[in-house]
Design a protein that fits this description.
Blueprint lengths: L1 H21 L16 E4 L13 E10 L1 H5 L3 E11 L1 E4 L14 E3 L11 E3 L1 E2 L4 E5 L14 E2 L6 E2 L3 E4 L3 E3 L4 E5 L4 E10 L5 E7 L4 E2 L2 E2 L2 E2 L2 E2 L6 E6 L7 E11 L4 E6 L6 E9 L25 E2 L1 E11 L6
Parallel strand pairs: 7-24
Antiparallel strand pairs: 1-2, 2-23, 3-22, 3-25, 4-5, 4-6, 8-23, 9-10, 11-21, 12-21, 13-20, 14-21, 15-20, 16-17, 18-19
Length: 323
């Protein structure tokens, strides 16, 4: 028994000695990284200013490989996409003296697509913009066309398809909605039929939209899946009671976003893009030569907005020696 105790004591002494020695030696690997953008976009703001119904206006912007990317020998090309997202404006009127932290305008959050606190979604300009490849010689960019088509046989607009909901029963203050089919997105909607009782807030449910104090994609009793859009409505309440309502939603086929590619080895380090706007007329003031079925804007004398997000989707290594 005493030999076993002595042996165990020796083992413990050795282990204690190792632990003691380990505390007197350390190795440090210093890890750093200098992070820079791969692209340079100019300008960072495009203002069409005051425009008028049926006017055609255009601006240009460039997407270029950054100087840091051009100097890095181990990478060659960048692929990117041009997305459209809602634009946010400050909720405070200028005469009040109150100000929003980011100024009069702000972008939606990149993950939630929601406006920051004290901001609201502006009237939607995105649906009327096109992004056209203005230097097609490189052959590696794709445009996003306009809703408005000029044709020798007569101008026309890309038309949405209207879908009717099932009969939806609403409680006095209940919510309900209807979605566009897969591969399409909502551009309008409304009430097809009801029992004539008062209704509350309703509108197109899309990223950034707030309707009746509720923000996309979650509305009471109706949640939209990622990428899904449609139309939602809250019943009016005020003693009006429940009623059956049929909604309609106007849906357009999804058109792929504009995409681009820049490559050092291909000597294509800058892309030129044309952003154009065919201005729709205001509802109730439509000229006779506006093509039938073409959209209108709901409100006169207000600002409309849209943000273009140029997002890198891929970076390829150089086939030459690694620096």
């Amino acid at each position: 028994m005493s030999k076993k105790i002595l042996a165990l004591g020796s083992v413990l002494a050795v282990l204690a000695g190792i632990a003691g020695l380990a505390a007197y030696e350390a190795h440090v690997i210093n890890v750093t990284a200098h992070i820079e953008n791969a692209l340079y976009v100019h300008p960072d703001e495009i203002a069409f200013g005051t425009v008028f119904p049926q006017e055609y206006v255009e601006r240009q912007f460039t997407v270029e490989l950054s100087s840091s990317f051009q100097a890095a020998n181990r990478v060659d090309d960048v692929e990117y996409v041009i997305k459209q997202k809602p634009k946010c404006e400050c909720v405070y009127e200028i005469p009040t003296g109150e100000q929003c932290k980011q100024g009069p305008y702000a972008s939606v959050d990149y993950a939630t697509h929601e406006c920051p606190v004290d901001y609201r979604v502006m009237e939607n300009l995105c649906q009327f913009l096109s992004k056209v490849d203005a230097d097609p010689e490189d052959g590696n960019d794709t445009s996003h066309p306009s809703y408005y088509v000029e044709d020798a046989a007569g101008d026309y607009c890309i038309q949405p398809t209207r879908y009717l909901s099932a009969v939806l029963y609403y409680s006095g203050t209940g919510w309900g909605g209807w979605s566009c089919p897969a591969g399409t997105h909502a551009v309008g909607g409304g009430i097809h039929s009801s029992e004539g009782l008062p209704v509350g807030d309703h509108g197109v449910a899309e990223p950034g939209a707030t309707i009746g104090g509720e923000t996309y994609p979650v509305f009471p009793h109706y949640t939209f899946a990622p990428g899904e859009t449609g139309y939602v409505l809250q019943n009016g309440g005020n003693g009006g009671g429940g009623q059956d309502i049929v909604l309609y939603v106007d849906c357009l086929a999804n058109v792929p976003d504009a995409t681009g590619m820049l490559t050092k080895e291909g000597q294509d380090i800058l892309d030129l893009w044309k952003l154009d706007l065919k201005v729709p007329p205001v509802a109730g003031y439509v000229g006779q030569d506006w093509p039938a079925g073409c959209p209108t804007v709901p409100t006169n004398d207000v600002d409309y907005g849209c943000d273009l997000w140029i997002e890198v989707t891929g970076v390829s290594p150089s086939v030459g020696p690694i620096e």
